[in-house]
Amino acid sequence: MKAAGIDVLLLAKPANMFYLTGDGRLCAYAMVSQDGKVALGVPTTDVEDVRRLARFDRIVGFEDEVGMIHSIAHSFEQFGIREGVVGLEYTFLTQSMLGMLTHPHGKPEKVRVADCTHILSELRMVKEAGELERIGAAAKVGEAGMKAAVEAVKPGLTESQIAAEAEYAMRQAGAEGFWRTYVSSGPRTNIAHGLPSHRRLIPGDLVMIDLHPIVNGYSADMCRTVCIGRPTAGQQAAFDLYLRAQQATIARVRAGVGMVELEETMHAPLKTAGHGEHIFGPPIHGVGIEFEEAPLPPGHAFFHGEKAPPPLPANVVLAVGNCGLYAGPWGVRVEDTVVVGSEGPLVLTNYPRSLGTQPAREGTRR
């Protein structure tokens, strides 16, 4: 904060509040001063719950948006801040949220605003031992969800039903939640973000399943593609090519590697094989409290309002295989959560990576 010239942070993004205080929820804020003092503002109904979960020096409840603005003003007074710079999360705040946090009845007139997005991203990028343990637990929960989803893949079921099987299994295995589950099938595997639909699976379909469980506040990210019946020669060749590229990229994950180097390692064999027009988006991103966070490749980082990442230190966690090979009538993808080690990668998601041959039997919902 000192290096960035920011006197106090005013945070509204749940992930950032959770990281610094132990609790993050919507319709709340955290104010953090340069000397480490923390003020929390939450709905009055939530005060006791937050009091049990979070670390803070001051907590206040409010009844509505007007009360929230007034409580922000009181927090500025408590911290003795009448001028200087307050850091706000520009990449999270909507225009209306920004207006609320900078309302003249809340923010002192002589306090200027600046973007603090990069500060929180840099803080959260390298994981501590306890964070790695939680991400590892999320990875195991993801494997349970993937197993349930793959076993449920049968003709007649919908993509939504496959997603439900995965989500039920993840909750039973210990997840308190999950980011959006992606399940796409047949021609819908050729889209980047396959939100589950009511399309029913048919024999010969490829089915792409992408899971993001949350365990104790931390996430993992894993994707697998399977086939109902026997894949065509073209599908198998594309899958094998993508898997080789993904595994070669994982093999290069170690302290000191750059995101651009990893991205080029992933894309090069696909382009060499003539699939340069069949890839989309960044193949690698960070994983932590959110299933997609810093570090991001430079172009994608700019889009998200982030700074280009430096060479990766140890204990950064990556998802390798984000976005797939989209051949036209279908697509394939494999994605895993990987820890950057001092000497090499530690892969946390180890569900089998096989296009396989799923029996083409008619399915019924359990």
Describe the structure.
- The structure is a single chain.
- With 366 residues, the protein is of the alpha+beta class.
- The protein has two domains: 8-124, Creatinase/prolidase N-terminal domain (Creatine Amidinohydrolase, Chain A, domain 1); 126-347, Creatine Amidinohydrolase, CATH 3.90.230.10.
- It has ten helices and 18 strands.
- The strands form five sheets. It has a six-stranded mixed β-sheet, with helices on both faces. A four-stranded antiparallel β-sheet has the order 13-14-17-18, with helices on one face.
- A hairpin with a 4-residue loop joins strand 17 and strand 18.
- Helix 6 (129-152) crosses helix 7 and helix 8 packs antiparallel against helix 9.
Notable features of this structure?
2 domains, alpha+beta, 18 strands, 10 helices, 6-stranded mixed β-sheet, 366 residues, Creatine Amidinohydrolase, Chain A, domain 1, Creatine Amidinohydrolase, single chain, 4-stranded antiparallel β-sheet
Task: Please outline the helices and strands.
Layout: E1 8-11, H1 14-21, E2 29-33, E3 38-43, H2 47-53, E4 58-62, H3 65-79, E5 83-88, H4 95-101, E6 110-115, H5 117-125, H6 129-152, H7 159-173, E7 177-178, E8 182-185, E9 206-211, E10 213-215, E11 218-219, E12 222-227, H8 233-251, H9 259-272, E13 284-286, H10 298-303, E14 317-320, E15 325-326, E16 331-332, E17 336-340, E18 345-347
Looking at the structure, the CATH topology of the largest domain is Creatine Amidinohydrolase
- Tell me, what is the CATH class of the largest domain? Alpha Beta
Overall mean pLDDT score?
94
Catalogue the unreliable spans: none
How far apart the termini lie comes to 53 Å
CATH superfamily of the largest domain: Creatinase/methionine aminopeptidase superfamily
The main β sheet shows up as: 6 strands, mixed
Main structural class: alpha+beta
Cα shape:
elongated
The percent range for helix content is 25-40%
Global Rg: 22 Å
Order of helices and strands: EHEEHEHEHEHHHEEEEEEHHEHEEEEE
Query: Which strands sit side by side, in order, in the main sheet?
Result: 4-3-2-1-5-6
The count of helical stretches stands at 10
Q: Indicate how many domains the architecture comprises.
A: 2
* Number of DSSP strand runs: 18
